């Protein structure tokens, strides 16, 4: 069996083993089939290349081919064959081959290829067998290694999938592109949300910011109205509307009937009658039929605001180092994933004294989001650059009526007046400004009035100390 066939057989065995151990996971996430297949294909290709590069028989194969090519039976091919036997742990018939060397010197040159053919054929058989045994041993080791690695990855996907499902999300096929460091970060952040119910409660509240609001909308609606439509009925004799020529005697004018009173004029009457030229009253009636008419009416309706764009400002300064930063990034991961699942535009700004930005788009996967959130500056804190950049984003068409959330311990200086004025203008345009304060060392008296809603979370006690205004609205629903 060729090496390619052996590897194909091993790949089928690995797939069957994984399908058995993770049957439910494969059913739940159909994309796993293709991802595992791709990894096994890459493993097979890499293993084939690796075995070729690490083969301990390369030198012996080269020696064998050289002797087959020269066609001369001498001491050199015998010595090279002896080295191969020693390397492979095979017996070497030294006396036999020495006798063949002596005999070959006594024979003519054209007969020297007979012992060489015997030597190279035996050498080739033993070399092929040794290579097969070595490859089988190496493939078994590499197979076990890749199987263990894939099982570990599937266990991670299983765990992440369960955690994301607890938060109401599914897991995408791009999870396979996460680095080990990304996976550890994601697991750590998800653990904060799945194990800390208060943190999860905040995240759920943030996700409902726009859903609890209602707006009054005036709609123009078509309505069908049924009315009585008058129509002339010529067969109805309800009223006189004029005169006409005819010979209907019941409607003939009295002056025409008077012609019959005299014999001379009676002939004229007869002629008019025959020619339908008698002056008669014209009568008609009116009937009413049902008719439908479409009219446009205006009506008021209450509707829930749809979740709009989201802008997240995450504090990664030195004062946030440790648990506060991790819970902030866990919130950002939750909200960013939620925005992507709801097709909401989402823009994330990491800030300390400078900023880094990241926009979640259709082609943006979890690995890109995690790689961005892993960035930290650990310097001072200045929220102004982040808010200035957020205000510029709000001017874009697809970020109108955005929900901005600043996640920070708010250990910082007060905001400049020009920035506060710009925030007020954007608030009038329908944008919202919210804050999540992490920790107790915050400047609530200076900053909380600048935000529409404010949440305060104590990471030491893992308790929500205050939910300003918004909490009551949500839980009343």
What would you note in describing this structure?
With 477 residues, the protein is of the alpha/beta class. It has 3 domains: 166 residues, no CATH class; 193 residues, 3-Layer(aba) Sandwich (Rossmann fold), CATH 3.40.50; 86 residues, no CATH class. 52% of the residues lie in helices and 21% in strands. It is built from 17 helices and 10 strands. Strands 6-5-4-7-8-9-10 form a 7-stranded mixed sheet, sandwiched between helices. Strands 1-3-2 form a 3-stranded antiparallel sheet. Strand 4, helix 12 and strand 5 form a beta-alpha-beta unit. Helix 5 runs parallel beside helix 7 and helix 8 packs across helix 9. The protein is elongated. The two termini are 69 Å apart.
Instruction: Provide the CATH architecture of the largest domain.
Output: 3-Layer(aba) Sandwich
Span of the ends, CA to CA: 69 Å
Q: Order of strands across the biggest sheet?
A: 6-5-4-7-8-9-10
Order of helices and strands: HHHHHHHHHEEHHEEHEEHHEHEHEEH
Total helical segments: 17
Number of strands: 10
- Multimerization state: single chain
**Which range does the strand content fall in?**
15-25%
Could you tell me the mean pLDDT? Answer: 79
């Amino acid at each position: 069996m060729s090496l390619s066939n052996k590897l194909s057989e091993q790949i089928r065995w690995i797939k069957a083993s994984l399908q058995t151990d993770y049957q439910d996971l494969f059913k739940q996430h159909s994309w796993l089939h293709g991802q595992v297949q791709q990894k096994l294909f890459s493993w097979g290709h890499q293993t084939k290349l690796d075995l070729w590069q690490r083969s301990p028989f390369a030198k012996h194969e080269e020696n064998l081919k050289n002797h087959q090519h020269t066609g001369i039976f001498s001491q050199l091919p015998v010595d090279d064959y002896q080295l191969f036997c020693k390397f492979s742990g095979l017996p070497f018939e030294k006396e036999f081959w020495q006798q063949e060397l002596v005999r070959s010197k006594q024979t003519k040159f054209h007969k020297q290829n007979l012992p060489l053919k015997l030597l190279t054929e035996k050498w080739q058989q033993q070399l092929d067998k040794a290579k097969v045994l070595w490859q089988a041993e190496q493939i078994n080791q590499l197979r076990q290694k890749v199987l263990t690695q894939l099982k570990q990855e599937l266990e991670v996907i299983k765990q992440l999938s369960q955690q994301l499902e607890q938060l109401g999300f599914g897991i995408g096929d791009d999870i396979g592109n996460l680095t080990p460091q990304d996976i550890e970060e994601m697991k750590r952040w998800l653990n904060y949300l799945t194990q800390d119910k208060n943190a999860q409660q905040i995240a759920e509240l943030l996700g409902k910011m726009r859903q609890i609001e209602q707006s009054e909308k005036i709609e123009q609606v078509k309505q069908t109205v049924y009315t009585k439509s008058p129509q002339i009925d010529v067969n109805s004799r309800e009223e006189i509307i004029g005169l006409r020529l005819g010979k209907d005697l019941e409607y003939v004018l009295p002056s025409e009937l008077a012609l019959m009173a005299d014999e001379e004029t009676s002939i004229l009457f007869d002629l008019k009658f025959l020619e339908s030229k008698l002056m008669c009253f014209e009568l008609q009636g009116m009937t009413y039929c049902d008719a439908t008419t479409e009219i446009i009416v205006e009506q008021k309706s209450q509707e829930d605001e749809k979740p709009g764009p989201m802008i997240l400002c995450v504090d990664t300064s030195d004062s946030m180092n440790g648990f506060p930063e991790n819970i902030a990034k866990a919130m950002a991961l939750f909200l960013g994933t939620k925005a992507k699942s709801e097709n909401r535009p989402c823009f994330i700004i990491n800030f300390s004294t400078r900023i880094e930005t990241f926009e979640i788009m259709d082609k943006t996967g979890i690995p890109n989001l995690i790689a961005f959130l892993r960035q930290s500056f650990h310097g001072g804190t200045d929220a102004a650059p982040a808010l200035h950049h957020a205000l510029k984003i709000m001017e874009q068409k697809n970020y109108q009526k955005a929900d901005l959330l600043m996640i920070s311990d708010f250990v910082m200086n007060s905001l400049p007046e020009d920035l506060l004025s710009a925030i007020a203008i954007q608030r009038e345009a329908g944008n919202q400004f919210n804050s999540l304060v992490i920790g107790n060392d915050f400047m609530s008296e200076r900053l909380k009035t600048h935000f529409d809603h404010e949440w305060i979370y104590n990471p030491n006690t893992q308790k929500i100390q205050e939910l300003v205004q918004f909490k009551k609205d949500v839980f009343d629903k």
